[in-house]
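tl;dr need the bound structure. longer version: we got a ligand (zinc ion) that a collaborator sent over and nobodys looked at where it sits. i said id run it. heres the input, straight from their email, havent touched it
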Amino acid sequence: MEMRRTTRMWLRTHAILLSVGLVAAGVVTMRAQATLSDQERAMVAFIDANNDAAIALLERAVNINSGTQNLEGVRQVGALFRAEFDALGFKTEWVDGRAWERAGHLVATHPGPGPKVLLIGHLDTVFERDSPFQKFERAGANQARGPGIIDMKGGDVIIVHALKALKHAGLLDTMSITVVMTGDEESAGRPLATARAALVAAAKGARVAIGFEDGDGDPAHAVVARRGSTSWTLEVTGVTGHSSQIFGPDLGAGAIYEAARILNTFRDRLAGERHLTFNPGVIVGGTAAELNSMDSRGSASGKSNVVAARVIVQGDLRALTVAQFDKAKATMRAIVAESLPRTSARIAFDDGYPPLAPSVGNERLLVMYDRASRDLGLGVVTAVSPDRAGAADVSFIAGEVPMIIDAVGLKGKDDHSPGETAELSTLATQTKRAAVLIARLGVLSRGT
Ligand SMILES: [Zn+2]
């Protein structure tokens, strides 16, 4: 029953989003029939003329190691981009990350009378100083490999060059643009609220936010919804004693049977709900059991003729909306409370990235991005399934900004692996799409 109702709600929500999207598309189509304006054409020409400079900036950024824990490297990449924003007339600031044990963030602000637009990048990569993968290298005419080349130094370069194009076309002056490049996207510092305070503050009052992650690598896709993730720890205790007395009045079921009941009931009652997943990743149990949550390592001891006294399980939970999280957590807590005889259990949730729930505003922004792409002759852009989009920084501002889109950065394949490769032709095309979208956001919203 519950699941069927959820599915119906989903269909209804999607139908509303779709109809709003079509209406918005119709409105934009009328205006866009003149295809590109003179200023948009000037931006396209500028981006083509400066493509080599954009690739050179990308190469410099990639060649500075900025694994999240290499704080000095992250700061150096920050300084590289900071100089670009300074040259564009932005007010720039380095937000020190000592309070969350990371390098910090770059924040660049360009005040103007237009609607506030927030552009989001990150400076760090998953490749630390001891990684063998350190340098930018060409791989054929149109490809290059490098640590963080698409995740997401390429996206950072797209932000810089789209803004340069806007300035060249005389459009930047009246715009209100804030850029935040975080220094710890790949391994966010804790507490998360502190580590993302600068991003959330920058989002205040923004009408639009655009994230330049690489997404699924396909230029025909963008992200308008991401699932959030939470981790959980389940601790079960039972009464220990001789195994011959299990299920009897003194010993009851023991901790291992109780943990098995809980996990299997999670699966029975929650598996299959759309966009919801949960996974027990590690379990230890026996007469004694310890689990270190920092490195997910544990130990257990017990005997086959002794009823288990203790079990610890750690897992994750992913959902698309806060409501879906709340409902799943309530169900899990209720299951945990239905203890077998002589056992008890408790579950604790440790919230990680919040969800970027689907919204009418996000869908509208995608329609505008798709329109910009088609006017540029660069094809249709559709939304990637939220089940295929991992957590990212845009999720932290989901409640702050009415229109959000992500994954419009440099495209390629195999991010987070030593084969991380950029499709270099997408550097110019993604920059054009971004520049035209940002230009239209300024013009459109001033009139509304
Ligand atoms: Zn990334």
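gonna send this back to them w/ a short note. Residues 42 and 169 are 6 Å apart (CA to CA).
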